[in-house]
Every structure is written in structure tokens, then in C-alpha cells.
Write a structure and sequence with these properties.
By secondary structure, this protein is α+β, with helices and mostly antiparallel strands. The chain folds into two domains: 45-243 and 399-489, 3-Layer(aba) Sandwich (Aminopeptidase); 246-396, Alpha-Beta Plaits, CATH 3.30.70.360. The chain contains 14 helices and 17 strands. Strand 4 (144-145) and strand 5 form a beta hairpin. Helix 10 packs across helix 11 and helix 13 (407-419) packs antiparallel against helix 14 (474-489). The longest helix has 25 residues, at 3-27. The structure holds zinc ion. Zinc ion is lined by residues 121, 156-157, 190, 220.
Length: 491
């Protein structure tokens, strides 16, 4: 074969590959979905804004030590709800569960059907000492300014709680009568990790004891994020949390003789522990492109513009590359593996004393499908120094993974896409814990999604300084709750 012919054939082969790729990319478009706009929904944004602002003023701060909680603030919050949502309190029954959780029941016309539940938590996290002055508006002012409602709880999650209450109030005013029973479950200590008297756990146990099985649960967790990568993607990504990671803390320690620091061994217990830390950090958990990540890449990829779409259309073939890329970016790595963070260390109590015991605490965020016990097995395998002692400090197993073909998931998806054709809906893995996991005993379809459009910069303000929410997101947020209840409890 002469040179020219070879080059010609090679070019031809490349040409057909490019053409095949173009065809594949051209077919890689958003799935056909019902996109006809929904009938308008009556919402009262002004009333909601005022109620949210006033709700933020009530300092429902939870604390790991229940004795340190100002319970009068929770009493105040309960009275506030009664006063602001009169129709709801007339038509729904309510009982206080545990210390201050509220369980509302809106009786449906057909008691044969499994009820739905809408969750929220009343509590908020405190303001970190020394950061009060960094707030542009006082953290519990509930100020309405510059197009935002400001303050602790505006994103996590009085916005959601007042949104649910407001929507039910409006539905009652509209004369809506649910076919299925609707529960509203308002926990009082979600922010206290692993609280022994978790309000959500008590409410779900109470429902279980009454023989209730839930059709679906909706809680916080995912949100609608305004994603704008110039020239690539300009859409809103609605992430519906279908699972949440678990977490656990292990203490890894080494013992030694101790003694005076004037005659030390070459390596003290703390020195030896340095090698242990390296073993732990150098042997990260295996990463994996899970079905959730694949689904996000697929849904987002279909909406990107051409050069990027031509790459992302190769779904399966792309997995190994994607895995390498994601595990090397900390924020992305948390989606594909159980993460490891060595966070605390201790040695001797004084500089001139050799440590008799040296220890580190390691925090793990556990992928669904793995257990806290698996984490220990991993540590035992990768730490070469077999004199270490490994002790579980505490933790919470990852949640189950909820299906994406349930009535509830489909309803969220359809409402989101029909409300705004720029919304892309994808399943999502929630990194932090929510109350939702406590309802797994009575429900398979547990979803974590808050229907307020957020600018991605606001995400860092949850639990942080200058927490605030845009008033522009309220109308759609409230309409979502109404539609969700009408769709799921209306039949
Ligand atoms: Zn929260």
C-alpha cells in the first residue's frame, strides 16, 4: 500500500469515527417529558415572607445537651404557628411528641390509602461565637432587605417548614380535601447529631406503633441550583436526594510506656502514630461511579452544548475517566467514595511528658451500601502497625436508596419540569444527615428536596454567616408544595 493510500484510509477512518460520534452526540438530547405548563397556583408570597421573617426571630436553637436548650423559644414557636396558620390548626389535629416535636394529621377521605408525610425541623444551629459581628443583618433579625429574608434558618430550614404550613393553609382556603391522609412532622432537634431523644425517630416510632405505613416522605436535602457554565450549560439542576451518606468517628490509638521526655525512645507513641495516619490517608476507600452519579452525568450531559455533549454522550465508556477525575477533586470525591478525614490528635498532657497513649480521631462519611463495621475492617487491613487499638466513637449508618420510579419521585420530577422548562431533575446523594432517614422503618419512598431556587454561592451560607434566601424563589417554591400535596394526596 503506498503512503498516500494509507494516509487516505486513516483519514477516512477518523472521519467516520467523528461522524459516528456526531450522530451519537446529536441523539444525546433531553428525554421527552410532558412539559406543558401547569395551571397557575394561588400563592400568598407576601404573607409567607412576613411569616418566614417572624419565624426566624424565634431562637429555636438546639443543643446536644437538652438542659442547655431554651425550651421557651420552642413554646413561643408553637404559639406562633397556631396564630399564623389558623385554618390549618382548625382542620388538622396536632400532638406534641417527645420534648417539642409536632405531629400534624390532615385526615384524608380514604383511610385505606397509605398517607404521605412532609417533614421539616424547627431547630436551627447556633451562631459561632465571635462571628456575630460578621453578619450584615443580625442573625435573628429576620430582616427583609435587598430582595432577601436574612437570618439563621432562612435556608435550613424554616423556609421549608413555613412553606409547607403556608401551602396547607392556602389549600384549605381553596377548599382542597385530601384523599390520602397527610402528616406534617416537625422535629425539634435535627441539628443535634445522633441525639438519643431524636424527635423524628420518636414520631416515626409512634406512627409505626399505630400501624401507619407511609406512601412517601418529603424532607430537606436537595435543592434547585442555578448552574451557569458559560457556553456549556445554563439551566437549573433540581437534585432530589434519594439517599444520604452515613458517618462514623473511629479513635485509633497506640499505647506506650511513657516517662520523662529527657530519655525518650526514637519514636514516641505519637511518632509511631504518624505512620498510622499515613497508612490511613494513603489507602483511601475505593471510588465508584454509582448509578446516582451516572444519572446526574446523563441528565446534565444531555443539556450541555456541543463540544461537551460529544464527550458526555459516551456514558458507560466514560466511567473510568470520570472516576479518576472525580476522586481527585475533594468536592466531587465525596460522591464516589467513603471519605476519610483525620481530624483530632492527642498525646501526652504536657510537653515534657512522654505519651502513654496517643490517639487520633478519624471521621468517615460512609457510602450507601457500606456499613460502619466495613470501615473498621478497612482500617484493620490498611494499618500496618498491628498494635493499634481501633474504637468506634459513634456514628450513623447510611440510608437506604429510594427508587426513582415511585409515584412520589415521578410527581416531583413532573412538577419541576412542567413548572420551568429550564429545570433538569436528577437523583442526588445527600452528604449531611436529615430527619428523613428516621422514617425508613415505615416508608420506602423517602425523598430529600427543597423546592427553592438557590444561587450556588448561597449554599456555603447554610450553618454559616449571612444565611439568607431570595424572595424571588418563593412563588415557585410555594406553588411546588401545593402541587406536590395535590398530586400525591389528591388520589
Ligand atoms: Zn436542616
Amino acid at each position: 500500500m503506498n503512503k498516500k493510500l494509507k494516509v487516505g484510509l486513516a483519514l477516512g477512518a477518523v472521519g467516520s469515527l467523528v461522524a459516528a460520534n456526531m450522530i451519537k452526540a446529536a441523539k444525546f438530547v433531553p428525554e421527552k417529558k410532558e412539559t406543558a405548563p401547569l395551571e397557575p397556583e394561588r400563592v400568598n408570597v407576601e404573607r409567607y415572607t412576613q411569616n418566614l421573617s417572624d419565624a426566624i426571630k424565634i431562637k429555636t436553637i438546639s443543643n446536644a445537651d437538652a438542659d442547655k436548650v431554651d425550651w421557651s423559644e420552642f413554646d413561643k414557636f408553637h404559639s406562633f404557628l397556631r396564630e399564623r396558620f389558623p385554618l390549618l390548626h382548625e382542620k388538622l389535629s396536632v400532638e406534641v411528641v417527645g420534648r417539642a416535636s409536632l405531629l400534624y394529621k390532615w385526615e384524608g377521605k380514604n383511610p385505606e390509602l397509605d398517607p404521605i408525610a412532609l417533614l421539616s425541623h424547627q431547630d436551627v444551629v447556633p451562631i459561632s461565637a465571635g462571628t456575630e459581628a460578621d453578619w450584615e443583618h443580625e442573625p435573628f433579625s429576620g430582616d427583609i432587605a435587598d430582595g432577601y429574608v436574612w437570618g439563621r434558618g432562612s435556608l435550613d430550614m424554616k423556609n421549608h417548614l413555613i412553606g409547607v404550613m403556608e401551602s396547607v393553609e392556602t389549600l384549605l382556603e381553596d377548599g382542597f380535601e385530601p384523599v390520602r391522609t397527610v402528616y406534617i412532622c416537625l422535629g425539634h432537634n435535627e441539628e443535634v447529631v445522633a441525639s438519643p431523644d431524636n424527635g423524628a425517630k420518636q414520631m416515626s416510632a409512634l406512627l409505626e406503633s399505630r400501624g401507619v405505613r407511609l406512601d412517601s416522605v418529603l424532607d430537606e436535602g436537595g435543592a434547585i441550583l442555578d448552574i451557569n457554565v458559560p457556553g456549556v450549560l445554563d439551566k437549573n439542576l433540581a437534585g432530589i436526594g434519594i439517599a444520604e451518606k452515613g458517618y462514623c468517628d473511629y479513635e485509633v490509638s497506640l499505647s506506650a510506656k511513657g516517662g520523662h521526655s529527657s530519655s525518650p525512645p526514637n519514636h514516641t507513641a505519637l511518632g509511631k502514630l504518624a505512620d498510622v495516619i499515613k497508612d490511613i490517608e494513603n489507602n483511601q476507600f475505593k471510588s465508584e461511579i454509582t448509578p446516582i452519579v451516572s444519572a446526574i452525568v446523563d441528565k446534565v450531559g444531555r443539556n450541555t452544548s456541543f463540544p461537551v455533549r460529544a464527550v458526555l454522550c459516551h456514558g458507560k465508556a466514560l466511567k473510568p475517566v470520570l472516576n479518576v477525575v472525580m476522586k481527585n477533586i475533594p468536592a466531587a470525591a465525596s460522591f464516589v467514595r467513603t471519605t476519610t478525614a483525620v481530624t483530632m490528635a492527642s498525646g501526652s498532657p504536657q510537653a515534657n511528658v512522654l505519651p502513654q497513649k496517643a490517639s487520633v480521631a478519624v471521621n468517615f462519611r460512609v457510602m450507601p451500601g457500606m456499613t460502619i463495621a466495613d470501615v473498621k475492617t478497612h482500617l484493620e487491613k490498611v494499618i500496618r502497625n498491628k498494635d493499634v487499638e481501633i474504637r468506634l466513637i459513634g456514628g450513623q449508618e447510611p440510608s437506604n436508596v429510594s427508587p426513582t420510579d415511585s409515584r412520589a419521585f415521578k410527581a416531583i420530577e413532573e412538577i419541576c419540569t412542567r413548572m420551568n422548562s429550564d429545570n433538569i431533575v436528577a437523583p442526588y446523594l445527600v452528604m449531611g444527615g436529615t430527619d428523613a432517614r428516621n422514617y425508613q422503618n415505615i416508608c420506602e419512598n423517602v425523598y430529600r428536596y427543597s423546592p427553592f431556587l438557590l444561587d450556588t454561592t448561597l449554599l456555603t451560607k447554610t450553618h454559616g454567616t449571612n444565611e439568607k434566601i431570595a424572595i424571588a424563589s418563593f412563588e415557585d417554591g410555594l406553588a411546588f408544595f401545593k402541587r406536590y400535596i395535590k398530586t400525591l394526596a389528591g388520589c
